[in-house]
Amino acid sequence: ENTHFVLSSTPFTASEISVFVNGLLQIPPDKLGFQDFSVTGSSVYFTTSSSPPEGSWIMANYYVGVI
Hints:
Helix content is 0%, strand content 31%. The chain is built from no helices and 6 strands.
């Protein structure tokens, strides 16, 4: 299943990431008692029920810490 994806950089904070699958915003962790994905480091994990179908377009918007 397509449940694990790796970002090109680690987000500044996991709570400030927006993930889109085929143009649809996914529900972030800790919102509405349900979540489509979680973030650990630079890894995005989709829940089994929200895993993107093969060939899906996935985009993530997030900030990277700058020193």
